[in-house]
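Quick start: what a row looks like.
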Amino acid sequence: MSTRASYIHETAVVDADVQIGPGSKVWHFCHLLEHTQIGENCVLGQNCAVGPNVRIGNGVRVQNNVSIYHGVEIEDDVFLGPSMVFTNVINPRAFISRKDAFRSTLVRQGATIGANATVVCGVTIGRYALVGAGAVVAKDVPDFALVVGVPGRVVGYVSRAARRLHFDEQGQAECPEDGSHYRRVAGRVKEVQ
């Protein structure tokens, strides 16, 4: 277990009952709301708001200007690009309280969500998926999928190293960067160990 302390910039606000794992850094003007858990070795860039009641795994990179609301869960090794957006109510109105209507959103291990992308609440972003900058995701994203556009649509698949995969006639592909292998079966992609 690591004994490295976390770093919290003097301008950050950390509410009661917030847990920040060792090696994590919270930068300028962030606000961590109550009952939030930040894992080990995470980085929260400038002007992020997290919580309340949010869990972020280990090794997560949250770039500047990202808000992670109640109902969003982030697994390990996720990258959230600058100014990407999560929502938590499907039909908000300023004059109607819908806090009991929050929909859960899950971002699975290793996924990347690009700058200025929007994730509509109630979806799951699959393991090692890559959501392109500016995309609007309104439905579940499969593991390793590459999603672009408005509305977001799957245009291909990527490896763990975020390199585009090209499948042969047998539905197999190799990552050009790290040599990892993948198989496409029934419209889903799985890593072959």
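That is the whole record. The chain has no helices and 25 strands. The mean pLDDT is 96.
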